[in-house]
Specification:
This protein is an alpha+beta fold. The longest helix is centred in the N-terminal third of the chain and has 20 residues. Helix 2 packs across helix 7. Helices cover 21% and strands 23% of the residues. The chain contains 10 helices and 19 strands.
């Protein structure tokens, strides 16, 4: 199909889709956004979570702070043992007595039939080649910038935009194959050579969208055959996706900045010399965030429990031979099945303060951009370099032997020396009579108290006492 004829068909399809969206049942819109009013270009919770929940490396005491360290970290999510439920506030109930609005913490479980009590939650890799987009970070930290973020991530960060009606998708990525020929004409190609953007529509007879959702890495979206429009035909500098394609004219559909694929830091800080003091990346991608929403138990709500929250534990897996000290922090993942979101808390006190706030103020969540709220805290696992191992202490040298031979001293309590002991006031309690000295023929040694020994000696001398040898 020629490009010109395709554009005519695409224009007809686009008009039909817009009309369909405008006349669609309000069920396609979510409670956060009222038809005809409010902003329908937002940020997906998964993308917000990527910047809100981070892995941070504190580089203050690292030897080489001129570059990002190559390091990998894994995180494990676990259910809570029954004997520890009370310690982790399982069963705690928060309620507004005036309105009846409440939240109850329940023990989280994995999908039905799973026997494991822990799973790999996410993996974070830092690479020396990671980039940093300060404007992207600024827009994310400023919050509520869906319109600007949709355009920004498509132009600079290999981003993706999705729609709540699952009809329109915009995908930015590296060009492949024949797509590279687009840059042969420099007068037309105003976009960076590493970025191609496709605006695509799902069709009843085309299953590319479902395949893409199942495996976005291997099922690349974007081609005229996929009913897609090449966005690179517009001028790069002035291009604004939301304005160009009139997204705000369809208030019944929510368009959201969904994710990005460029390997980027979420935050960084440097000293005056330009050396890193800290670097951060998201604990999990937007895709991983959404994937986890389907790995939690959702429909086993006990009778009599309104607005349940399911709690899990989150820890960092120790890494063998790591240059970083082990992180032993325990954080808390709380899943809200009715809102399709989960939050991460640094401590139980932080979680208690959060639930007290939302219950006392009757705060009910919608579905999109929930994590942008100011009262939802950030969370981060921070690692620092491991302290240098202490050197083994040098062994003390052994004393050299004394060349002077020691005199052969007689036994301390030999009867012959008892007088000396007495005058030295050592007064031994027992004296030993040796057969070699006093009794050479009468038997073995005797252990006797001093006065008994002396008396015995006198009796022996007088012939009154005789000793018998024990054979």
């Amino acid at each position: 199909m020629k490009k010109a004829s395709f554009k005519k068909i695409l224009g007809f399809v686009t008009a039909a889709l817009i009309f369909f969206g405008l006349s669609a049942n309000f069920n396609t819109a979510y409670a956060d956004f009222q038809p005809g009013g409010g902003n329908n270009t937002v940020v997906h919770n998964g993308l917000i979570a990527n910047f809100k929940y981070e892995k941070t490396i504190d580089m203050t005491n690292m030897k080489d702070r001129s570059k990002i360290p190559n390091a990998d970290f894994n995180f494990v999510i676990s259910t809570i043992d029954e004997d520890k439920e009370e310690a982790y506030h399982i069963g705690k109930h928060y309620e507004n007595e005036d309105t009846g609005y409440s939240r109850t913490i329940l023990p989280g479980k994995f999908e039905e039939g799973a026997e494991s009590t822990s799973k790999l939650f996410s993996s974070v890799s830092f690479k020396e080649t990671d980039g940093f987009d300060p404007e992207f970070t600024r827009l994310m930290d400023a919050r509520d910038n869906g319109k600007l973020l949709i355009t920004h991530i498509l132009k600079y960060d290999w981003g993706e935009m999705r729609s709540s009606d699952r009809i329109q998708t915009a995908i930015s990525r590296q060009p492949v194959g024949d797509e590279l020929a687009y840059w042969d004409d420099p007068t037309v190609a105003t976009w960076p050579e590493d970025t191609i953007v496709w605006r695509c529509f799902s069709q009843p007879d085309n299953d590319w969208y479902e395949k893409f959702l199942e495996d976005p890495i291997n099922n690349r979206v974007g081609s005229f055959e996929d009913a897609c429009q090449l966005v690179n035909e517009y001028d790069f500098e002035t291009f604004d996706y939301v304005t160009k394609f009139n997204l705000n004219l369809n208030p019944y559909t929510i368009y959201y900045a969904y994710s990005y694929k460029k390997p980027l830091l979420t935050h960084q800080s440097k000293d005056n010399a330009g050396n890193y003091t800290s670097v951060s990346k998201g604990l999990l991608t937007a895709e991983k965030y959404e994937e986890w929403l389907w790995n939690f138990i959702e429909w086993n709500i006990p009778e009599g429990v309104d607005s349940p929250v399911y709690r899990y534990l989150l820890t960092e897996e120790p890494t063998a031979d790591s240059v970083f000290a082990e992180n032993k922090e325990v954080k808390f993942v709380d899943y809200f099945p009715g809102n399709e979101i989960f939050l991460i808390f640094n401590s139980l006190d932080e979680a208690d303060a959060f639930y007290t706030h939302i219950v006392n103020n009757d705060i009910v969540f919608g579905r999109f951009s929930v994590l942008n709220e100011d009262f939802i805290p950030n969370a981060s696992f921070t690692n620092r370099p491991a302290p240098a191992p202490k050197p083994d202490p040098k062994p003390e040298p052994s004393p050299e032997p004394d060349p002077t031979p020691e005199p052969n001293e007689p036994p301390k309590h030999d009867l012959r020396y008892a007088r000396d002991d007495f005058y030295e006031e050592k007064k031994p309690e027992v004296i030993i009579i040796h057969k070699e000295s006093i009794l050479p023929k009468t038997g073995d040694s005797l252990n006797l108290p001093l006065y008994v020994g002396a008396l015995g000696f006198l009796l022996l001398s007088a012939g009154v006492l005789k000793l018998r040898r024990n054979n």
